[in-house]
């Protein structure tokens, strides 16, 4: 579903462009509403559009088989989906699935590649974002191996809360298990532990973050490390 481009733009990458580059970039964008569970590309699929989320967020999922899937990155209003195009490739190595419904700014791949060639500032900005995303991918691999499910769940809930811009999240145990690459029983125990500490409430797929500060303490250090890196690489000094 298409709609008019909203204002002001709330995607950090686009907001970081100069007024002239931003106006030129937005001229080739359209605002599109994405539904929960919508698949943008499958592994090996061609990337036809780039997506800059406004109030939705997208899971990037590595798939070994139908039953072996793991979320390796999450993209919200801080970033974009379509990174291989920055490297001159149009094939997606991951499954891109809408995890939180909402609106994105979408641009055809050909137009995006044209803007990359015309704007050195855009190319430099997205190279920095690509570095941050690569760091997130590698940290997820280490986090999955070394950290306990409860700490990983707390981190994942914080990441989701940041991108949903809400304390209330609709997430089933089945979905959480797939995102974290663990059995449903492991998610149940971890969620019960966080609820027992009064950090969250959970009922029939609805999770409410009750104590964000406490949830940050319960999360593994990967959450804080990711935020520090993002601010160091992508947030200019003096920015909010």
Automatic annotation (TrEMBL):
Keywords: DNA-binding, Transcription, Transcription regulation. Residues 147-213 form the HTH crp-type domain. The keyword Flavoprotein does not apply. GO terms for molecular function: DNA binding; DNA-binding transcription factor activity. InterPro entries: cNMP-bd_dom_sf (IPR018490), Env_Response_Regulators (IPR050397), HTH_CRP (IPR012318), RmlC-like_jellyroll (IPR014710), WH-like_DNA-bd_sf (IPR036388), WH_DNA-bd_sf (IPR036390). One of its GO terms (cellular component) is cytosol. Pfam families: HTH_Crp_2. PANTHER family: CRP FAMILY TRANSCRIPTIONAL REGULATORY PROTEIN (PTHR24567), HTH-TYPE TRANSCRIPTIONAL REGULATOR ARCR (PTHR24567:SF74). This is CRP-like cAMP-binding protein. It comes from Halomonas fontilapidosi. The lineage of its organism: Bacteria, Pseudomonadati, Pseudomonadota, Gammaproteobacteria, Oceanospirillales.
């Amino acid at each position: 579903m298409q709609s008019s481009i909203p204002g002001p733009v709330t995607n950090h990458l686009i907001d970081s462009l100069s007024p002239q580059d931003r106006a030129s970039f937005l001229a080739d964008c359209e605002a599109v509403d994405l539904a929960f569970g919508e698949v943008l590309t499958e592994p090996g699929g061609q990337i036809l559009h780039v997506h800059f989320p406004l109030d939705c967020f997208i899971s990037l999922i590595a798939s070994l088989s139908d039953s072996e899937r793991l979320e390796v990155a999450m993209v919200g209003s801080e970033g974009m989906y379509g990174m291989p195009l920055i490297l001159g490739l149009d094939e997606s190595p991951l499954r891109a699935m809408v995890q939180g419904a909402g609106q994105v700014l979408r641009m055809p791949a050909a137009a995006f590649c044209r803007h990359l060639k015309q704007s050195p500032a855009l190319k430099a900005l997205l190279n920095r974002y690509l570095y941050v995303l690569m760091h997130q991918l590698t940290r997820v691999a280490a986090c999955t191996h070394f950290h306990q499910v409860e700490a990983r769940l707390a981190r994942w809930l914080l990441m989701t809360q940041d991108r949903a811009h809400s304390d209330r999240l609709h997430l089933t145990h089945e979905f959480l298990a797939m995102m974290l690459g663990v059995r449903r029983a492991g998610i149940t125990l971890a969620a019960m532990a966080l609820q027992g500490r009064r950090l969250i409430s959970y009922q029939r797929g609805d999770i409410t973050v009750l104590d964000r500060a406490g949830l940050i303490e319960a999360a593994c250090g990967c959450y804080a490390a990711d935020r520090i890196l993002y601010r160091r690489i992508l947030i200019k000094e003096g920015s909010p």
